[in-house]
């Protein structure tokens, strides 16, 4: 964490803007005693405390830096996207559902996504001197790609246990093994790691002197 803070302190205000992405992956319930760490592994672990419940999901948080390449059709302050989003909201308001109980959750999700995008773009354009916004940087593809790689470690494991998940997660991050499957349903991203194993070693050597 100290290394992360050090690297971020060297970035400009613009480069510090990023997207906080989080998601869950189902894992197999499994408890075992780790001789190396002298602890029982497999219960819900929130970092500062554990619960008495066996973990069946892994939650991962990822920071994705904003892109520096203005591709075609980027969302800008005066682009046609604003009119399109306005039409989408009007269409959603007039959408008729066969359900007499409530509006389908997906419709509420669309509305929330549109409102969030409008609020985020207004804040970035007015307060951070950002000229464009790439909406593809706001999805979870980068995180889903990591989950795909973790499931494919060693053998195809759609439901790894806690030990398998932790080991595959660390190996993926340290080795940068981000080669995704040809049958994935998420696009590859062009990100790079903010912290690498070489950077950690260099920082450790410098700190020890």
Which regions have little confidence, pLDDT < 50, spanning 5+ residues? 68-72
State the major sheet: 2 strands, antiparallel
Structural class: alpha+beta
Shape: globular
Mean pLDDT: 76
Largest sheet strand order: 1-6
Domain Transposable element P transposase-like RNase H: 3-64
Domain Transposable element P transposase-like RNase H C-terminal: 137-169
Protein name: Transposable element p transposase
Pfam family, one: TNP-like_RNaseH_N
Q: Could you walk me through the main structural features you see in this protein, from its secondary elements to its overall organization?
A:
Helix 4 packs across helix 5. With 209 residues, the chain is of the alpha+beta class. The two termini are 19 Å apart. It has six helices and six strands, in the order H-E-E-E-E-E-E-H-H-H-H-H. It holds the Pfam family TNP-like_RNaseH_N. InterPro entries: TNP-like_RNaseH_C, TNP-like_RNaseH_N. Residues 137-169 form the Transposable element P transposase-like RNase H C-terminal domain.
Key attributes of the depicted protein:
209 residues, alpha+beta, 2 domains, two-stranded antiparallel ribbon, 38% helix, globular, Transposable element p transposase, TNP-like_RNaseH_C
List the helices and strands and how they pair.
Blueprint: H1 2-9, E1 18-26, E2 32-34, E3 39-41, E4 43-45, E5 50-54, E6 57-65, H2 81-93, H3 105-127, H4 141-151, H5 162-175, H6 197-207
Antiparallel strand pairs: 1-6, 2-3, 4-5
Helix pairs in contact: 2-3, 4-5
Briefly say what this structure is.
With 209 residues, this protein is α+β, with helices and mostly antiparallel strands. 38% of the residues lie in helices and 15% in strands. Strands 1-6 form a two-stranded antiparallel ribbon.
